[in-house]
Design brief:
heterodimer; A: mainly beta; 52% strand; globular; B: mainly beta; 4-stranded antiparallel beta sheet; 11 strands; 0% helix
Chain lengths: 113, 113
């Protein structure tokens, strides 16, 4: 399959370690944030979301943290597995009717066995 | 249940030609959005349609157009193709226009020679 992000920043972790992927978003008016996972040859897959009135949300093995003061979003993956290897994008939605997603530039996560 | 489907999977065109890409949303979803993903970058919003009407447009030239049919499927048309139009074109569906959760298809890889 094709490579989604040939020139993206890369985070390399050992299997079983925790991973932290960071994202700086652009618009202080954004009211909703989402992390997507994109594997080679596939479309983005929803991982977890968070509203702007929250600062933390937990899912299964994943946690998203939101710092509105510095417009920063992070995704924490616990006990990283080889299947977590992919490109990860943060996306934001402004409070407009159309709810279009604005994506960040992405981070490639490589999990070493 | 079938997810979002897109056709064709891959397409090769030459400069100046026209192309039509197709998308079928998840059954019951009435909103379709189109995104362009250039290699190494996050997806960029092109259009959103809901109930056959355009509800939003990104910063793309008039060479890009789209429509939505009564069965909620959608077509994206690009005229006078340029080399820079080479990208992965993603379709996403959501149940209604203001629903934050968007589900992506696998995309159509367009190469312009």
């Amino acid at each position: 399959g094709e490579s989604v992000g040939l020139h993206l920043p890369t985070l390399s972790v050992q299997e079983g370690d925790n991973s932290i992927i960071n994202c700086a978003y652009s618009n202080s008016a954004s009211d909703y944030f989402i992390w997507y996972k994109q594997e080679s040859g596939k479309g983005p897959q929803f991982i977890i979301d968070i509203r702007s009135n929250m600062d933390k949300r937990q899912g299964q093995r994943v946690t998203v943290l939101l710092n509105k003061t510095v417009k920063h979003l992070s995704l924490q993956i616990a006990a990283t597995q080889p299947g977590d290897s992919a490109v990860y994008f943060c996306a934001e939605i402004m409070d407009t009717g159309r709810r279009a997603l604005t994506f960040g530039s992405g981070t490639r996560l490589q999990v070493q066995p | 249940d079938a997810g979002v489907t897109q056709s064709p999977t891959h397409l090769i065109k030459t400069r100046g030609q026209q192309v039509t890409l197709r998308c079928s949303p998840i059954s019951g979803h009435k909103s379709v959005s189109w995104y362009q993903q250039v290699l190494g970058q996050g997806p960029q919003f092109i259009f959103q349609y809901y109930e056959k009407e355009e509800r939003g447009r990104g910063n793309f030239p008039d060479r890009f157009s789209a429509r939505q049919f009564p069965n909620y499927s959608s077509e994206l048309n690009v005229n006078a193709l340029l080399l820079g139009d080479s990208a992965l074109y993603l379709c996403a569906s959501s149940s209604v226009v203001n629903n934050n959760e968007q589900f992506f298809g696998p995309g159509t890889r367009l190469t312009v020679l």
